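Researcher: Next sequence.
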Amino acid sequence: MTSLRDTPASPVIRAEGLVRRYGSFTAVDNLSFDVAAGECFGLLGPNGAGKSTTLRMLIGLGAPQAGRIEVLGLPVPACSRQVRALIGVVPQNDALDPDFTVAENIRVFARYFGLGRSVVDARLDALLDFAGLAGKRDARIAELSGGMKRRLTLARALVNDPRILFLDEPSTGLDPQARHLIWERLRQLLRQGKTIVLTTHFMEEAQRLCDRLAIVDHGKLVAQAAPQALIDSTIEPDVFEFAAVDATALAAAAASLPGVSRAEAIGESVLVYCRDPQPMLAWLAERPALRWLRRPANLEDVFLKLTGRDLRD
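Model: Next structure:
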């Protein structure tokens, strides 16, 4: 499969200098980015970083107090109605109607786009097959699992054959099997040429799906690149993880070794980031009682380094 990393495309979304305040709180602070046609673009950040506010502005549900948004060549929010006819949105909460069947939920949603019954019926089988819900056409929402509801919400968002799909936390609350199925469906959409913009707290999800991503914190852009490029430019390649009662002492000892850039004690865990793992491996060979794991650096390491480890409400 050809990757967007190898095939640059023209932007279908332009966000320039976006600002959004609520009283004295600045939710989005001079945020700028582009999204290319056919790519998966991720917005990452801690709770309260401005992700959902930015997403709402992109789809015309909130206006920036400064800056400019253009989606598919149309200004937002001035042309929000036209833009919403060309996009699909998968919100955090499924918001399915429990009084309707699976098929009826799609049919009713299609009315918002002015789609006639014949058009919807022609698309319905393909949408249900895509969502893995062909056998649940007449099922009530209460009969569906969480993963089925999420896939139905995704299928419903595709009823108007959108050019851009916006997803807000698409796999929150799903078990690993359901999450991987959602990822596979999103990859299908990318192969079909759809553009995807997603927010997520799952770093593995972002690393697997996104061609590029932006990390935001306190409303500001703190990094923007392809996932692997961010990892390579931000974090040492080798990470050692330890479980230790005296984590502070272990971190101090590890930090003194050649090849170690830094060591962090978090509770009874220690993370050691290495430019060269060999001195650490030699040190460990002399301490067989230590429990440890060696792994490559990942996007979660980048995220925590750039946004910190403090809890956000």
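Model: The chain has two domains: 11-229, 236-296. Residues 1-8 have pLDDT under 50 and may be disordered.
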